[in-house]
Every structure is written in structure tokens, then in C-alpha cells.
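In the laboratory, one determines a bound structure by crystallizing the protein with its ligand and collecting diffraction data. In a computational setting the workflow is compressed into a single prediction: the sequence and the ligand go in, and a structural description comes out. We illustrate the idea with guanosine-5'-monophosphate.
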Amino acid sequence: MKKNIIVISGPSGVGKSTVIKEILINSSIIEQSISDTTRNSRGNGDSYHFIDEEEFLNNLKRGIYVEHNYYNGNYYGINKEVLRTILQKGHSALVDCNTAGLQHLLADEEFQKHILSFYLVAEPEIIYSRLQHRKTETPESLMRRMQEGVTDLKVAGSGIYNIIFSTDDGNPEDLAEKIIQACSGNLHIHSDYYPSELTALSRKLTFFCNELFK
Ligand code: 5GP
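The predicted complex, in C-alpha cell form:
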């Protein structure tokens, strides 16, 4: 069975979108599956279909999402038809979602067997500094995103991801290349972390947040 649904997750601020952009530039067969969201655009070319809550809830009732999630005050959902269209072309679908999204996809009979999943992590200081540099987060939403990261890391620490990479060295080109290689079946690509180490990282992030927001 070809693993042609590539899931990429990681705490907010880890640098996922930069790595995803590099993957899309460097592979002609990997296409991003664009999720629907009710959050506002950051105006930086972020890859979503932006819709309002009424439309999202209507879509949800019609059953168009393979999975959906409520995160930081907004809905996000993966449209089944968007995934199917990419797979029918013989391409691989790249899905950017949180740990809940992967859990939902792994529970879906149609899509579960296609999934190859990657989790990206970084040290708390690096995550914080990247979120600050975005200049789009209020102090409250920055704090919520950091705290969501704690929960996300704990879930990822349960071992649901195939490969875990660190973005600490800030080299998205190399990381994108390793992900492309792993997707083409290169078995010599290894994780930077064991899942159990993510639990320790989650504790470190909790400590960092407590110190920061005291
Ligand atoms: P952001 O607002 O920073 O673009 O995304 C917030 C979080 O939602 C990120 O962890 C991102 O990976 C995740 N996300 C984006 N689209 C989806 C989706 O369709 N489903 C789920 N479960 N998570 C998503």
C-alpha cells in the first residue's frame, strides 16, 4: 500500500509552514491538501480556504469533512473530496494538522492505510521566539498556542507518528529534503527523537510557559 497521505504536525511556532513550502517547491508529486478554517487569514499566503462559522457548520452537517477540530477559538476541517482529488491524480497529499487531526485520520477506514506521519519539534525558547516574530498573535493567543503545544507534545509522545524531526537548527531546506526522501521510501531516514522524549519536552514547555506568564 502506497503511503501517499503525508501528515505533518508540530506545536504552533515550530516552523511547519516554512518546511511545507520547501517540500512543495521541491517535489512535483506532493500537493497540499487545503483545509477549511474559520480563523482569519494572517495575510501571508497561509494555505487555507477561509470560510465563516455558518458555512463551516453547514459543511460539517453535510459530512464533507473526514475530520475537524476546534483549536484556539476556530474550526479547522479536512475536506474528503480535496484529499480524494489529489490521490486520484496519483499525487501525494500533504496534510498540515494537529495531533487530533492525525488521530481522526488514523481512525478513518478509507484513509488510514495511506498515512505516513511526521512530527516536528523545537526547544521552547525557539518556539516562543518564532511566535513572537510573527507579530500576528496577541499575548493571549500566543499563550494559548504555547499551552496547546504542551498538550500536542504529550499526545505525540504516545508514539502515533512514524518519524519525529527537530527544527532547532533552523534549516528547512534539509528537513524538507529528508521528508521527501522518507516519502519516496528511503528507509535510512531516522527520527531525531524517540516518542518518550517528547513527554520530557512537553514538561519543559510547561515550565517555560509557567515562568513566562507568572
Ligand atoms: P494555524 O492557525 O497556526 O494555521 O493552525 C493551528 C493548528 O491547527 C496547527 O497545529 C495546524 O497544524 C492545525 N490544523 C490546520 N488545519 C487543520 C485541520 O484541517 N484539522 C486539524 N485537526 N488541524 C488542523
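The chain has a mean pLDDT of 93. Keep in mind that any predicted model is a hypothesis to be tested, not a measurement.
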